[in-house]
Design goal:
4-stranded mixed beta sheet; 7 helices; alpha+beta; Ribosomal Protein L22, Chain A; 12 strands
Length: 256
């Protein structure tokens, strides 16, 4: 299983939801929400998150940030059986968010990505996970960026594609690389040209090479996730995964 053709289901009551062995749960949420729903989610945020939300210049960006963070709290609160406002986060040395130590007794790990009105969340138990989603309509000089920042082999594949296939391949490559860096929790401390992933959407998602440890490519499993039209997304997770489950994170259902 390297590509996910998901059936997004409504989870109903997620209070105390457990993780199945070898399973990763993928959640999808819309972040362009009515004002009253944004206000409710805002109340779940920490003081630091509220302060950050208020610094956004444009209301649309402020609302998407509030929605993505508030819904994350609702999802994690369901697994831990605690209220969304009681979720506490810390960060690793490169800024990757994680649950505060007092909430880590079940080994729950997560990652979040959002783009242009949609958010994806990956939740796993006792294994690192990273997810990235990108909007295909985002303005981007894909060939120039690939040649400057990607591995030469990746840029060569992208350059060789027809114009109408190049953009999707670029974002597929981008999300695979970002998902790995997010799973590892290293941010951009590892330059994008120091490792190579498969590029074309039809290629099995995989880590092909790294400059720092050849064995690392055997430690990770990649999945292509379809979040809906006009988006591409990728998941990277430590090996040992046998199942992906897909849920729609409707705040009306899961945020109580």
């Amino acid at each position: 299983m390297t590509s996910a053709d998901p059936v997004w289901s409504s989870p109903g009551d997620i209070a105390g939801r457990g993780m199945a062995p070898g399973c990763v749960d993928i959640w999808r949420a819309r972040t362009d929400l009515p004002g009253d729903r944004i206000s409710s989610l805002f109340n779940f945020l920490s003081a630091d998150e509220q302060s950050r939300a208020e610094r956004f210049l444009y209301p649309v960006h402020r609302g998407r940030y509030i929605a993505s963070r508030g819904i994350l709290r609702c999802i994690l609160g369901g697994y831990l059986d605690v209220g969304p406002s009681k979720i506490r986060f810390s960060t690793c040395s490169h800024g990757k968010p994680q649950l505060e130590e007092s909430l880590q007794q079940v080994g729950l790990r997560f990652n979040l990505s959002h783009s242009h009105g949609i958010a994806l969340y990956a939740v796993a138990e006792n294994r690192d996970v990273g997810i990235d989603v990108e909007y295909l309509g985002r303005p981007c000089r894909e060939l120039q960026i690939a040649r400057r920042f990607f591995a030469p082999e990746e840029a060569e594949v992208i350059a060789g594609l027809p114009d109408d296939h190049r953009r999707k391949a670029f974002f597929v490559c981008w999300t695979r690389k970002e998902a790995l860096l997010k799973a590892k929790g290293v941010g951009l401390s590892i330059p994008l040209d120091r490792f190579e992933v498969s590029v074309r959407p039809e290629d099995p998602p995989a880590l092909l090479r790294t400059d720092w440890n050849e064995k690392e490519r055997l430690q990770w499993r990649f999945f292509t996730v379809d979040p809906g039209p006009d988006y591409v997304a990728s998941l990277a997770v430590e090996k040992g995964v046998s199942q992906l489950r897909f849920f729609d994170a409707d705040p009306e259902r899961i945020c109580r």
